[in-house]
Structures are given as C-alpha cells and as structure tokens.
Amino acid sequence: MTEIFGIPTQVLFGQLLIGLINGSFYALLSLGLAVIFGLLNIINFAHGAQYMMGAFVAWLLLDKLGVGYWWALLIAPLVVGATGVIIERTMLARLYKLDHLYGLLLTFGLALIIQGLFRNEYGSSGQPYQIPSQLQGGQNLGFMFLPNYRGWIIVASLVVCLATWYVIERTKLGAYLRAATENPQLVQAFGVNVPRMITLTYGFGVALAALAGVMAAPIYQVSPQMGADLIIVVFAVVVIGGMGSILGSIVTGFGLGLIEGLTKVFYPEASSTVIFVIMAIVLLVRPAGLFGTQK
Predict the structure, then answer these.
(1) In sequence order, which residues have a C-beta less than 8 Å from that of residue 263 and are 6 or more positions away?
(2) Banded pLDDT at 9 (limits 50, 70, 90)
(3) Are the beta carbons of 250 and 161 closer than 8 angstroms?
(4) Running DSSP on this structure, what letter comes out for residue 92?
(5) Contact between residue 1 and residue 9 where contact means Cβ atoms under 8 Å apart
(6) For the segment 233-269, what is each residue's pLDDT rounded down to a tens digit?
(7) Cβ atoms within 10 A of the Cβ of 173, count?
(8) Angstrom distance (rounded) from CA 252 to CA 274
(9) Contact, 290 vs 242, CB < 8 A?
(10) How far apart are alpha carbons 158 and 27 in whole angstroms?
(11) Which helix (H) or strand (E) holds 145?
C-alpha cells in the first residue's frame, strides 16, 4: 500500500475528503452569517437552529408528503427563509440602532427556543434521511473511493458560495447592498426600498443555512442538536475570515475543513481544538480577520 509521510494514501485522502465535506458546510453556514452581519450588523446566533430547521423540513417533506431530496433543496430554504423574514420584521428590525450585543442575545434566545420546541416534539435521537438514488454509490479513483453524494456536496457548496460572492461583489444588486450598509439614507434617496432589501437579505442568509441543513441531512442524522454542535465552529470560521467578509468566509471555511482533516491524520488529539487555536492566533496578529478590514 502506498504511503505519504508514513500514512497510507487511502487514510490520508479519506480524511482530506471528510475535511472538504466539513469545510463545505463551514463555508455555506459562515457565508450566511457574513451576509447577515455585513448588511444588518446582527450576529445571528440562531443560524445553527435555522440550519437544523432546514434538515427537519426536508425530513418532514419526505416522511409526511413523500417529497424527495431534490424538491427539498428548493422548498426548505424558501420555508425557513420565510420564517427568517418574519423574525427580521417583527424582532430584529427594532434592534438596528442598538449595540450588537442585543441582536446576539435575541438570536441566542431564539436558538434555544427553536431547539427546545423541536426536541420536545421529536426527541433528542436523530432521524435518518436517505441519500437520493441518483447519488448513491461512488467512484474508485485509484488512490481512494469517492462516494457520489460526498462529491456532490463539495461541488454544490462551492457553486453556491461562488455564485453568492459574484452577486454581492460584481453586480448592481450587490452594489446596492454594500451601499445600503454604508449610507442607507443616500440609497433610499435613489428610490431603493432599503428596509425591504434588509429583510430579504436576512431571509437569504437564513435560506443558505437551511440549504446546508438539507445537504447535511443524508450525511448526519436529522437531530435538534445538529445545529448547536456546529455553530460555535462556524463562528470561529467567520472570525478568522473576517466578520462580514464574503470571500473570507468561503476561503476560510474550505481551508479550515482541510486543516481539520489533516490534523485528524497527524495529530488526532488536537483535531477538535485546532480551529480555535488558529482563531486565537489570528485575533492576536490580525484582529479584523484574514480578509476583514479594520474600522
């Protein structure tokens, strides 16, 4: 068996694949957080709960209505994004002129409420969600076996992340969004409905979390705790990349996933803490994050 640095290639590339898959979810979730923070200046601690809601909507669609994975990729983000619009209009809109801490506390409370409601209804044990038939099986690459669904997760996540970056950084809509962050009164004077734009932006960020939840459902069991286990790591990813930085969220998400995978190969004891060690170092050297700007 071929080895690299004394590690069997199948083991090494297998862990890199797991790292890429984790990085795909880190990137998608941190991207949603960056979009929300970049325009609303709200630290959305309910993001993990909304990720979990996306997975549960997909599971309920399949279990109760027989609606499969492909439709769930569209329906779940719309449903959970709509709940985000309601939350923004009824609660968050009242906090924009206050300190960031108030938004953090509100969304933290919402996360606990949502998780508690789902735990009371469905219990703490996970619900299985079947991989769609079109993506079952895998490909033998010679040096490793690549499950089709894992490959789909990486490609789909990368496409969604790059498309979001392109819209925000390279289109007129993105220019309006960025301008509304700096000077909402001026943008409104040009006839742009800034409150509606802010509401839809929050809904879009929440929909990204729900999309990640649907994609995660066949890999991880659908559980009320699945978001709580992930959100702390995702916040670390956002801090390392730079709060509000779209490109930083994408690059850092995938990069830290790979670093985490390599750590599991060479020093497994540190795999659960390596991201937080990197965060501490980055905050000491560059407090605004790798791609952030110091204000």
Answers:
(1) 270, 271, 274
(2) confident
(3) yes
(4) G
(5) yes
(6) 999 999 999 888 889 999 999 999 999 999 998 888 9
(7) 11
(8) 13
(9) yes
(10) 8
(11) strand 145-147
CA distance 104 to 243: 14
Map tokens 């009242």 to a residue. Answer: 94
Residues counted in the chain: 295
Of residues 99, 72, 56, the one with CA closest to residue 223: 56
Residues 6+ apart with CB under 8 A from 26: 233, 234, 237, 252, 253, 254, 256, 257
Burial bucket for residue 227 (CB in 10 Å: 0-12, 13-18, 19+): buried
Q: What six digits make up the tokens of 79?
A: 């449903």
Which pLDDT belongs to residue 274?
94
105's tokens: 């506390």
Alpha helices by DSSP H, the chain: 9-40, 47-65, 69-90, 100-122, 148-170, 172-182, 184-189, 194-216, 228-241, 246-266, 274-285
**CA pair distance 275, 236, nearest whole angstrom:** 7
Measure the CA–CA gap between 18 and 11, rounded to whole angstroms: 11
Q: How far is CA 72 from CA 51, 54, 200, 221, 286, in A?
A: 13, 9, 20, 16, 40
Where are the chain's structural domains?
Answer: 7-123+148-285
Residue 287 tokens, joined: 């407090």
**What is the full DSSP assignment across 239-259?**
HHH-TT-HHHHHHHHHHHHHH
Cβ pair 237, 92 in contact under 8 A: no
Contacts of 202 (CB under 8 A, 6+ apart): 36, 40, 42, 44, 84, 85, 87, 88, 92
Which tokens in the block code for residue 76?
């779940």
CATH number, domain 7-123+148-285: 1.10.3470
262, 211 Cβ separation under 8 angstroms: no
In the numeric block, the tokens 């669609």 are attached to: 61
Query: pTM of whole model > 0.90?
Result: yes
